[in-house]
Amino acid sequence: MPNSAEPIIVAEAVGKRYGHFQVLDDCSFKVANGEVVVICGPSGSGKSTLVKCLNGLERFDRGRITVDGVRVGDPGVDLTRLRSRVGMVFQQFELFPHLTAEENIMLAQRRVLGRSVRDARERARALLDRVGLLAHAQKYPKALSGGQQQRVAIARGLAMDPAVMLFDEPTSALDPEMIGEVLNVMVDLARDGMTMVCVTHEMGFARHVGNKILFMDAGTIVETATPEDFFGHTRSERAQRFLKNILHPMGL
Ligand SMILES: Nc1ncnc2c1ncn2[C@@H]1O[C@H](COP(=O)(O)OP(=O)(O)OP(=O)(O)O)[C@@H](O)[C@H]1O
Ligand SMILES: [Mg+2]
After folding, report:
1. Between 131 and which of 45, 107, 117, 151 could a Cys-Cys bridge form, CB atoms 3.0 to 4.6 Å apart?
2. Closest ligand by atom to 218 CA
3. What is the pLDDT of residues 7-17, one digit of tens each?
4. CA-CA distance, 232 to 69, in Å (whole number)?
5. Neighbours of ion ligand 2 (CB under 5 A)
6. How many angstroms separate the alpha carbon of residue 129 from the centre of ligand 2?
């Protein structure tokens, strides 16, 4: 097991190209145990690609990534083990439509961790309770609202007892009135000490819950700042423009 004083994630000079297009260039950052890191930046800047590199969902061609002591990208890396240590929540909730909420949360516990039906169900129900959905345990995804589905997806990630949770715009496909219920679950997780990397444009979350903000543009991490610095005196002109657009989209 890695020393808890060691960063859980270390990315060093990560680069990736699609043909001639440099999607990631010289990206370096660290995530400490219990830290909440928010990644923001314009569309197409490489945010999703970067987080997917962290759990081996995307390949990278340069640099190094270590997550929970595992060298991601090594030819012999055990991706199943890695992904059980790194939970991921996507914009589209991606639940299995033919399984109930409870069964969605049980599946990987059974298949990957080899837990008994009883243990997996007990854990699933405890997590459904934690995200406020115990009463909906037997419902299929299509009978749940977007916000409820996303909370089930978060519970599914947590069921693996991950060392870190990755979120890629978890609220951007939701109707406005459902954003709060998902953000509240994320705030609770952060307060409980979960290590989190969140791609989000929810600047309230970034400001009040984030410990560190990475601002990306054109495949590079242009700024790494505390929320105070990022919102107080953003250095790059590009980040200032981004913040202005996101906080005042109509220029008002
Ligand atoms: N398979 C692919 N082949 C070629 N280019 C790709 C591929 N996947 C992504 N890209 C390009 O890589 C760039 C970064 O994409 P990525 O999805 O990481 O951006 P993003 O910051 O997450 O954007 P958004 O905010 O819209 O989600 C984009 O310009 C995209 O068009
Ligand atoms: Mg994206």
Report:
1. 151
2. 1
3. 999 999 999 99
4. 35
5. 48
6. 30
